[in-house]
Amino acid sequence: xxxxxxxxxxxxxxxxxxxxxxxxxxxxxxxxxxxxxxxxxxxxxxxxxxxxxxxxxxxxxxxxxxxxxxxxxxxxxxxxxxxxxxxxxxxxxxxxxxxxxxxxxxxxxxxxxxxxxxxxxxxxxxxxxxxxxxxxxxxxxxxxxxxxxxxxxxxxxxxxxxxxxxxxxxxxxxxxxxxxxxxxxxxxxxxxxxxxxxxxxxxxxxxxxxxxxxxxxxxxxxxxxxxxxxxxxxxxxxxxxxxxxxxxxxxxxxxxx
Length: 257
Prior knowledge:
Blueprint: H1 4-11, H2 15-24, H3 43-56, H4 61-69, H5 72-105, H6 113-124, H7 129-145, H8 150-161, H9 164-176, H10 184-204, H11 206-209, H12 215-228, H13 232-241, E1 244-245, E2 251-252
Antiparallel strand pairs: 1-2
Helix pairs in contact: 1-3, 3-4, 6-7, 7-12, 9-10
């Protein structure tokens, strides 16, 4: 006969666990010796190992007793059901891990991979980190409100970034944050951008320049830009003087012929 301590050692559990299993009705109370101590026969070790194994596999204790008494077919069916539940939980935890990874990745939080790739490209091209932050903050509402359009929009933006005037403008934007409003570098960049936008509109239409967004979304995105980089207001003024209005939704200032 075994004491509760010896039983725990043989089965690889704690004494506390054995008492818990007694309380749950998974292990019947054994006979006690003349001193009032529980005494177990060797067969209880086998039962306890089965309980421990099922519990460690994620089987709720409420189901362990029924499984121990089930015939082979019912046992197999129950195990298959538990396995399916565990697989679902694993998938859920993997999704949670992916979200946590996005939190750690910075840009990847709330942004699709193609946008993150675009922001990385801006960094590699030497664009000021403050301008990249403006870009990132603008893409987050777009990804939330019109996720189906993100591939189209990012492809257009990436294509435009291949054109020197737009890249020059991106690089010049950083200067306006630290230099006077009429810095020659900025003015020259705006001149080049306005000329580029005009050519683009003539070749592919004004809609290709803008994003064709809902007015409320345009207002939100413009507010984000001005809130993150207040000097952008001067850029808008310079573009307006050159025939282009807006920021998020760039449009010709006057109707074309």
